[in-house]
């Protein structure tokens, strides 16, 4: 396993609680849209065993063409040891990244794509949308739907509807509006539905989609392949 040590080159306050940490891109490090990585703080590998409290599984919110590795995360006032340390880090501080992989690359199979997310989960979809806007080959159109009760919606300049590019985007702040729209989107029985959020959020969305006749193979989750049956297989008979 190769561990890349790199430095923070910029910190962006996206909202009052959400920050993006832009990291220098190490030589030879690359990734695909929709990728996640293990993001670790200094000291995580100082002992015989890794200190898991200093490691988090994070989505990369940038594309390689942006030449910085973006890590976007919510840091509340009451937070974990990891988030507390991260909140106090500054430009020039070192972090580690390793085990980078993409479970949700953009499918280009001439179908519609629906991106369903909760809160900061939208960070996973930012590079997919940028990749699509740069070249829309073999994607009919993309619709993004994000729910965030804080109403501090993320990446609004990017997630702005562009009908000429067949990209539409909606932000809602309540569950009723959100799930009503999911049901409407599921009228497309051929589309791909990407979901990012908490496990509870994934399960609720899958239940709604399956009730509307969407098949498991149309549902894309940011989970390792061996984790997918826990979310999808119990619905296979329905």
From TrEMBL:
Stated name of the protein: Dihydropteridine reductase
Superkingdom, taxonomy of origin: Bacteria
SUPFAM superfamilies: Ferredoxin reductase-like, C-terminal NADP-linked domain, Riboflavin synthase domain-like
Gene source species: Oceanobacillus locisalsi
């Amino acid at each position: 396993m190769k561990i890349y040590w790199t430095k923070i080159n910029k910190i962006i306050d996206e909202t009052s609680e959400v920050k993006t940490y832009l990291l220098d891109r190490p030589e030879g490090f690359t990734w695909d849209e929709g990728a996640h990585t293990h993001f670790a703080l200094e000291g995580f590998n100082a002992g015989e065993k890794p200190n898991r409290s200093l490691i988090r599984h994070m989505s990369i919110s940038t594309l390689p063409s942006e030449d910085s590795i973006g890590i976007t995360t919510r840091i509340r006032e009451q937070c974990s040891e990891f988030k507390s340390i991260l909140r106090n880090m500054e430009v020039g501080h070192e972090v580690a990244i390793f085990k980078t992989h993409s479970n949700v690359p953009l499918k280009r199979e001439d179908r519609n794509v629906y991106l369903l997310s909760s809160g900061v989960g939208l960070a996973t979809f930012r590079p997919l949308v940028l990749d699509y806007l740069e070249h829309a080959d073999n994607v009919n159109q993309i619709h993004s739907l994000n729910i965030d009760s804080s109403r501090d919606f993320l990446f609004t300049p990017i997630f702005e509807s562009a009908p000429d590019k067949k990209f539409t985007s909606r932000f809602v702040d309540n569950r009723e509006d959100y799930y009503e729209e999911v049901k409407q989107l599921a009228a497309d029985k051929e589309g791909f539905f990407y979901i990012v959020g908490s496990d509870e959020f994934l399960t609720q969305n899958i239940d709604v989609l399956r009730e509307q006749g969407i098949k498991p193979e149309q549902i894309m989750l940011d989970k390792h392949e061996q984790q997918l049956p826990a979310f999808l297989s119990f619905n296979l008979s329905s």
